[in-house]
């Protein structure tokens, strides 16, 4: 399936010269080879804004990058549940890249949020592969339509920062296929990204950048990827093994590259010129992406886009007594340092240098002035400081005088970033204390949160009336939050990850961040809500949860078949409240069919729809064969098990609104029986099974259920030896032959 690029322009160029194209020229640029018409292209982070360094270069964002719009990070886009929102971001970022002469944007990041502690969760979308894949594909299509390419990252199973350069993610095959690879698969097969970035970590002991199974067998041969595989920055240790595995471009380059190893391997015959040519041809094809058109970016227009995207992302978690939206004429006390110094983006390579940032406090004051709302402000705490009694006292006094206290709390950049993981999901204790004291003093209390990874709401949740989880909303987030608080925008974000009651309840808890160089993905496919919903473990807020100022009803669900093992769900939804709003239809599939344990339900489709008050719409969600399939490790492919399936339309992963059943034909995976196959497997074999009792001479014999159960786990060879029965070898042989042709 792998596409081959034209190698003709490379004729006559020495192997050594070509080998030098296999690593970058410096931190951000590739090598040029003018004789062959290959231009140097430039790359820049990242997923939610450009970190283009035309001055000093570095990896850690120690040096400032050129000014660029800071859009909402992945955590926010995930919460939008909206491919159109991801696409708006992609398109805007694509234009900024073109304007700054950036040919490849290093994003999107579609890794699964396996643990809430991962320091880079702010950059990733979700704990669910469907949602991550749909958003990543929409982003990629829209960005690349503007000219530049993307680098979908970090491929693969890079789900923590602790020891990220050396850790081995030990993941079983089904879990890789069902949880950690599908978002990449969707982006690659549906959106054709220019490049894929191989991650730092190892997968089952083999470095991603040296992993031939991952980079060639899965990515190219199965998924048909024909772009460039680029290493994460400094991820390559053994360049020759990486090249053989399918890693085309090592980044960065210059003194940090390993071209000499490639040249030496060419001399010794360890690799051939054609190995080099294949990668060089792909790099040459990438170089043709070089952006040439002169694009200018309207900074104000992009600021407005950043605000509009942010409006889609904030999640209203709680709204008792309909305290929100803030009514006209109310007296509001804004409390918390984050109102004046908002946390709006993450730290590390994704860090953006925005031209301006909306302050929630300013935006609240501006709208309040128009609505006859009076606003007082007290910081209450410093962003990362210890408790300050004077600040607390002022805040409580302000809360007492107000009808509604709005507390802006959250995590500072020091507490979460690329490069390290958190060890707690708690808010800093001075903030928790302040929230409780304010809630005790104020008539009504609203908490607005700013954090990249989820935070615990325990210890204060029940004491406040409303919680608006903003996550990180980019440079326009301050305005978007104010719009939502005053009801100018109806909140429509939903959680893309579960908020547990305590960290210890989380399925990753026992195996994070690993030890002695290995992290065992012990929860298997039961990641995030798949575990919570299956085990019945209570959570604070489930995956998919999100409130609105209006009310929606899911009125009807019907299923039509579109093929042997595929269907479409038709879901009728209505806005039954008195405001326009956006509703997210969430469709999950469940089954107990087949030989593997399935999560109680899995998200297989979603759509965000705008509904006017009183409006009803029917939303169609496609459920292709893959929506019903599991990865069968014996067959080495996706299999739909024959049997009964349930389609649940849900408000969140735990709350089913409508349900419908269907039976699928599926396929029995033929098991080839041998003398070393357990007798139980012989019994269950769909074709041969009914004849096994007879062949063994057990029909009518006085065998109890318990004895049969014991026999079932013996291999056929062991059973024949132990039973002393006179069993015809020819008859068994005939059954084995029949099992192979099944
Ligand atoms: C990060 C990548 C980033 C690259 C370039 C690496 O450390 O893991 O996500 O694109 O640096 O800055």
Which regions contain 5 or more consecutive residues with pLDDT less than 50? none
Q: Largest sheet, described in full?
A: 6 strands, mixed
Superfamily (CATH H level) name of the largest domain: Glycoside hydrolase, family 3, N-terminal domain
The small-molecule ligands in this entry are: beta-D-glucopyranose
Number of strands: 26
CATH topology of the largest domain: TIM Barrel
Mean pLDDT: 96
Category by helix and strand content? alpha/beta
Span between termini? 28 Å
Question: Which CATH architecture of the largest domain?
Answer: Alpha-Beta Barrel
Describe the structure.
The structure is a single chain. Helix content is about 30%, strand content about 20%. The protein has about 750 residues and is of the alpha/beta class. The protein folds into four domains: about 10-285, Alpha-Beta Barrel (TIM Barrel); about 300-540, 3-Layer(aba) Sandwich (Rossmann fold), CATH 3.40.50; about 550-665, Immunoglobulin-like; about 680-740, no CATH class. Strands 9-14-13-12-10-11 form a six-stranded mixed beta sheet, with helices on both faces. Strands 1-2-3-5-8 form a five-stranded parallel beta sheet. Helix 3 packs parallel to helix 4, helix 3 (about 85-100) runs antiparallel to helix 11 and helix 4 (about 130-145) runs parallel beside helix 6. The relative contact order is 0.11. The mean pLDDT is about 95. It binds beta-D-glucopyranose (BGC). Beta-D-glucopyranose binds next to loops.
């Amino acid at each position: 399936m792998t596409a081959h690029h034209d190698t003709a322009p490379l004729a006559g160029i020495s192997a050594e010269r070509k080998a030098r194209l296999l690593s970058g020229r410096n931190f951000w640029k590739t090598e040029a080879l003018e004789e062959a018409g290959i231009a140097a292209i430039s790359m820049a982070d990242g997923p939610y804004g450009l970190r283009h360094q035309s001055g000093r270069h570095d990896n850690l964002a120690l040096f400032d990058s050129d000014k660029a719009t800071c859009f909402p990070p992945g955590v926010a886009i995930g919460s939008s549940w909206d491919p159109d929102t991801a696409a708006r971001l992609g398109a805007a970022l694509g234009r900024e890249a073109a304007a700054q002469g950036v040919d490849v944007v290093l994003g999107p990041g579609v890794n699964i949020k396996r643990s809430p502690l991962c320091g880079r969760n702010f950059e990733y979308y979700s704990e669910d592969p469907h949602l991550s894949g749909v958003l990543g594909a929409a982003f990629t299509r829209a960005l690349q339509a503007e000219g530049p390419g993307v680098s979908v990252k970090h491929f693969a199973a890079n789900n923590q920062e602790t020891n990220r350069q050396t850790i081995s993610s030990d993941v079983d095959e089904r879990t890789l296929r069902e949880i950690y690879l599908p978002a990449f698969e969707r982006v690659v097969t549906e959106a054709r990204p220019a490049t894929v970035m191989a991650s730092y970590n190892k997968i089952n002991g083999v470095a991603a950048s040296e992993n031939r199974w991952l980079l060639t067998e899965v990515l190219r041969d199965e998924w048909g990827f024909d772009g460039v595989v680029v290493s994460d920055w400094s991820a390559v240790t053994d360049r020759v093994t990486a090249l053989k595995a399918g890693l085309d471009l090592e980044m960065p380059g210059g003194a940090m590259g390993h071209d000499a190893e490639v040249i030496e391997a060419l001399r010794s015959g360890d690799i051939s010129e054609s190995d080099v040519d294949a990668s060089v041809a792909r790099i040459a094809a990438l170089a043709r992406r070089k952006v040439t058109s002169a694009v200018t970016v309207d900074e104000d227009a992009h600021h407005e886009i950043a605000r509009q995207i942010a409006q889609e992302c904030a999640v209203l978690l709680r709204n008792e007594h309909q305290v929100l939206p803030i009514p006209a004429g109310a007296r509001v006390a804004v409390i918390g340092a984050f109102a004046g110094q908002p946390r709006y983006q993450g730290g590390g390579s994704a860090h953006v240098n925005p031209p301006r940032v909306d302050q929630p406090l300013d935006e609240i004051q501006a709208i309040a002035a128009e609505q006859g709302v009076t606003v007082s402000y007290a910081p209450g705490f410093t962003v990362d400081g210890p408790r300050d009694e004077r600040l607390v006292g002022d805040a409580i006094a302000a809360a007492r005088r107000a009808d509604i206290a709005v507390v802006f709390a959250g995590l500072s950049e020091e507490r979460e970033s690329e490069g390290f993981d958190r060890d707690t999901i708690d808010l800093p204790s001075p903030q928790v204390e302040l929230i409780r004291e304010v809630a005790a003093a104020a008539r009504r209390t609203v908490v607005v949160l700013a954090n990249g990874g989820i935070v615990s709401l325990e210890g204060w949740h029940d004491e406040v009336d409303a919680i608006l989880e903003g996550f990180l909303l980019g440079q326009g987030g301050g305005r978007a939050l104010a719009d939502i608080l005053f009801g100018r925008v109806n909140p429509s974000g939903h959680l893309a990850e579960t908020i547990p009651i305590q960290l210890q309840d989380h399925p990753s808890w026992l195996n994070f961040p690993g030890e002695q160089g290995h992290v065992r993905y012990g929860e298997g496919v039961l990641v995030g809500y798949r575990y919570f919903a299956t085990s019945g473990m209570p959570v604070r807020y489930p995956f998919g949860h999100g409130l609105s100022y209006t009310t929606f009803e899911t009125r009807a669900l019907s299923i039509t078949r579109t093929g042997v093992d595929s269907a479409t769900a038709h879901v009728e939804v209505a806005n039954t409240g008195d405001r326009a709003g956006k509703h997210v239809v969430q469709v999950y599939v469940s089954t107990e069919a087949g030989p593997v344990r399935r999560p109680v339900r899995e998200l297989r489709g979603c759509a965000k729809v705008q509904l006017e008050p009183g409006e009803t719409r029917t939303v169609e969600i496609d459920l292709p064969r893959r929506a019903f399939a599991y990865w069968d490790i014996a067959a080495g492919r996706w299999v739909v098990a024959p049997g009964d399936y349930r389609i649940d339309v849900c408000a969140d992963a735990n709350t089913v609104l409508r349900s419908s059943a269907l039976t699928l034909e599926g396929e029995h995976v033929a098991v080839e029986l041998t003398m070393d196959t357990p007798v139980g497997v012989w019994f269950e074999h769909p074709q041969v099974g009914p004849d096994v009792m007879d062949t063994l001479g057990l029909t009518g014999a006085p065998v109890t259920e318990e004895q049969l159960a014991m026999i079932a786990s013996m291999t056929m060879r062991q059973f024949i030896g132990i039973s002393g029965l006179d069993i015809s070898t020819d008859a068994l042989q005939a059954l084995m032959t029949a099992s192979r042709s099944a």
